Amino acid sequence: MRAVTDRYVDQLDAFLELCPKLERVVAFGLDLRTWVVDWSTLEVDGACFLACALPEPLIAPLTAAGATVLPELPTLPFTPYRSSLYSPSELLEGVDTEIATWFRRQPRGLADSLAQGIHDASIETALSRLLRSELADRPVVGVMGSHATRRDDPLFRKVAGLGRLLARAGCLVVTGGGPGVMEAANLGAWLAPLDDDALDRALRDLCAVPTFDDREAYAALGAEVKARYPGGGVNLGVPTWVYDEEPTSPFTTHVAKFFANSVRENGLLAIALAGVVYAPGGAGTEQEIFTDAAQNTYTAYDVRSPMVFLGRDHYERVRPDLVPAVRAQAEAAGWDAYVELCDTPEEAVEFLRRTSLGQEQHAPRVIAPTRHREGRRSAGGATPGVDPSE
Predict the structure, then answer these.
(1) What is the pTM of this model?
(2) Strand order in the sheet with 25-28
């Protein structure tokens, strides 16, 4: 994910305040047909007019002056041009299911693929803006693991406790935004500002629908439990419609939902600069583990981030090959100090405190990847040759 330098407006008053200097302004859904202005005086190089109503004769001159004009696409069940992320309530109102139904439709034409690409680019940009503005002071920590973990499983409780500890340590908890381990971490982060008993009560209530075999009932109970505990903590989910059978976690506060799982997977790991905790999971979790390891080896996002494996029994008995494979790669590339195997949420958070939390370069940043950088984080935390404040 790349840094964003555009200026975004979806209100007419804000747009008018910027005139006539509209370079790199992105306007969403504005009706400009009755606006009286000498359009030839506007500076529009690099500007984008997305689903804006414009006088037809002006489209060609704007394009010639360096602007991009893209029309509204009214036949879709989603808005390709988004200026912000989704909220969980927006998705739960039916949009999520409607989009999933459309996405399952086969075959899809080029126009559909282009709309998906525009949507995902808009979501990626909105996520970048969020992390570089109102959440810029929060170290981002990812929590990954099985989507199939039941709400009454002890692992669900453990990961919920981890999410709460991370949020109370000042972190922005980010997950894949689905059920299981992902929902547990979002739940803990949401309840972090509340008293300790709130998590116990919420976990007990959620056990009434322990699995998402009934997707609608699972999601509805989650939303109902969340409503019982207002004033929760900010956290982030990054799901995909590829796994359309999985309900989006209602305990998130911001949802960056993508069509392309490859964009979602890479971006999710890229923003978790303060580290990722891997609870037991299946093939998807293992894919994330080795993608993360590759990003660290190539120093793809200017820092090398901790990888914490939570659950000794799983990683020593069930899948004893995973952590040694990561350690071997880390040792060869010089970042083995950032790999840890532990058993409790407290141990995981303590390791992150020692290796990343509180270090300035871990403020949530979304920057262009630079593969095969020579520098790597030193023992003091800084990456040689990189200004941590950039």
Answers:
(1) 0.88
(2) 7-9, 25-28, 48-50, 68-70
